[in-house]
Design brief:
A: alpha/beta, 13% strand, B: 82 residues, mainly alpha, two-stranded antiparallel ribbon
Chain lengths: 474, 82
């Protein structure tokens, strides 16, 4: 393997499915004292850039680096193309994938900008304030809600306990017909950040190899507990985060954070990634507008990150049928974790946790808060932790539905659609021992992976565009 | 309508060489062809045949692409000049 060869300025380097080769160039006098360069007949390249053919991109990027490491993929490519000498190097392949991923995101930004402009919004993706569009763009027909006989039947089937029936009926989150719902999952996914400069190892490798999951949970908790004032900044924060709330005193490893959104409707799904919530939610808005989905019930599934709710409402509050649902699994887990810190003894903790789960499953949030506030002081280990859980429930009160009835009606209670997308687009490739990423590299690879996830391989390779549409419709 | 046609024929031929002069690696020869030699005792070995054909094909394809694109771009430049 060798670095990109330096060629005379007129030659044109190509990275193809058949290997790397160079088209010899010529300079022809143009008759006016100037020269025509044959290189200029091909797509423009910058610096030492190579032209990558569609076949190469398919083989090396879509079917290559999205599954295997750059080093493994380089070895495979050079072997397949019979070019062990003078073939591609891992760093070149990494740079190519980073550039290609950036092109995908840039394509979304441009497309979203055009769509928003068509609909009269500001074209500035990432700072799109939609509040002014409330009158002009409000849906003409609100989706029909499930009510009356059908709802009573579902409530009966859900076997709501007598003492919670009134609370369940009073839960403010309405029930949309499943066929009218556009399900949207939005979440952040973290990967280890590459160090700017690598100092020689002094044997302290434990911090570098800490379990990514542990830090992810730690990060998620810190995000969830942000004050409302900090939320706006967090929406636009760059894709690099340093989490400093570790209790073991170790210096935490910085992380790169990608924001993932998945839209699902009528059995089709579409995944997008960006560096910030502001940008990815703008892609979501553009997607809804392009596909005529704004008249549907728009249902966001979130994990409780406070800034996310604010970001969603900043962009979508002008739509009448927007719901934000707190994922049941995250809610349950949060209660378990906080009660562990707050209550003396595992047995007592489990008893309170069971009671709390029962109340929250039926959407009885005020009763859950009252239950926590009434816990006997002698059973409490950490009053502050208990208060934080009360605060959490108060903050998320309008995102906690009656999960039991939703389940009976066939409505989603979980954010697993975006958790799955996180796994496919980032975790499965980027969260392994010894792997660390730059912000651009991580986002680029995730963006390339979405080409396959969205089944837009042909559109991207042939036309270089990523339509904000389901593959069937494109 | 005018088209570009691509034609390929892979040839096998018996030849004599010494271990010092045989072409163990794909080599471009004077007539523009690429050649590689392998021991005739392996002429029935499917794997050796497959690898030899692939080994000589890829450099030949790269060379053909580079030459053709260079030729066509030169022709096009000259047309633009006219």
């Amino acid at each position: 393997m060798s670095p990109v060869p330096t060629q005379p300025s007129t030659s044109y380097p190509v990275e193809g499915e058949v290997g790397r080769f160079t088209i010899a160039g010529h300079e022809v006098a143009d008759g006016n004292g100037g020269t025509l360069r044959t290189r200029d007949l091909f797509p423009k390249l910058q610096g030492r850039q190579l032209y990558c053919t569609a076949g190469f991109k398919e083989l090396a990027l879509l079917l290559g680096v999205t599954d295997a490491s750059f080093r493994k993929e380089t070895t495979k490519l050079n072997r397949l193309r019979r070019q062990q000498e003078g073939g591609i190097a891992p760093t070149t392949l990494r740079d190519i994938s980073e550039r290609e991923g950036a092109k995908v995101v840039a394509c979304w930004v441009a497309t979203a900008g055009d769509i928003l402009e068509e609909h009269g919004f500001s074209q500035d993706v990432g700072s799109c304030d939609t509040s002014s569009r409330a009158d002009a763009e409000a849906p003409s027909v609100a989706p029909t809600l499930i009510a009356g006989e059908h709802l009573n039947e579902a409530m009966a089937t859900a076997k709501i306990p007598e003492d919670l029936l009134t609370s369940a009926q009073a839960n403010p989150i309405p029930y949309d017909r499943p066929e009218d719902v556009v399900e949207i999952g939005v979440d952040a996914v973290l990967a280890k950040k590459q160090k700017e400069d690598r100092a020689r190892s002094t044997g302290d490798s434990s911090a570098a190899q800490e379990e990514p999951r542990k830090a992810t949970l730690c990060a998620a908790n810190s995000d969830q507990e942000q004050s409302p004032g900090a939320s706006t900044a967090a929406v636009n924060q760059p894709a690099e985060q340093v989490h400093e709330d570790r209790r073991d005193g170790k210096k935490p490893r910085p992380r790169v954070s990608n924001k993932v959104a998945t839209i699902r409707q009528d059995g089709q799904s579409y995944t997008m990634v960006a560096a910030t919530y502001a940008v990815v939610l703008t892609f979501v808005l553009a997607f809804l507008l392009r596909n005529g989905l704004r008249d549907r019930a728009i249902c966001f599934f979130v994990d409780g990150e406070r800034c996310l709710k604010n970001a969603i409402m900043a962009r979508f509050k002008w739509l009448s049928s927007v719901r934000v649902i707190l994922d049941w699994h995250h809610l349950d887990k949060k209660c378990g974790e906080v009660l562990s810190s707050a209550i003396k003894g595992r047995k007592l903790r489990n008893e309170h946790w069971e009671q709390l789960k029962r109340l929250l499953w039926y959407g009885a949030v005020p009763k859950a808060i009252a239950y926590l506030e009434a816990i006997d002081i002698t059973q409490i280990k950490d009053q502050r932790a208990l208060q934080s859980l009360v605060g959490y429930l108060k903050k998320h009160q309008d995102e906690i539905p009656c999960y039991a009835v939703r389940k009976q009606l066939g409505l989603r209670n979980s954010s697993n659609l975006v958790e799955k997308a996180n796994d496919l687009s980032v975790s499965s490739r980027q969260k392994h021992n010894g792997m660390s990423w730059s912000s651009e590299g991580s986002l680029g690879l995730a963006a390339i992976t979405t080409i396959r996830m969205n089944h837009h391989e042909e559109t991207w390779l042939d036309h270089g565009c990523m339509p904000l549409q389901f593959a069937k419709a494109a | 309508m005018e088209y570009e046609r691509v034609r390929v024929r892979v040839e096998f031929e018996e030849c004599l060489a010494t271990p010092e002069t045989n072409k163990a690696e794909p080599t471009k020869v004077s007539d523009g062809c690429f050649e590689v030699d392998f021991d005739r005792t392996l002429e029935l070995d499917i794997n050796t045949n497959e690898q030899a054909v692939l080994a000589v094909s890829y450099p030949a394809i790269r060379d053909a692409l580079a030459s053709e694109l260079s030729r066509v771009s030169k022709k096009k430049s000259k047309k633009q000049q006219v």
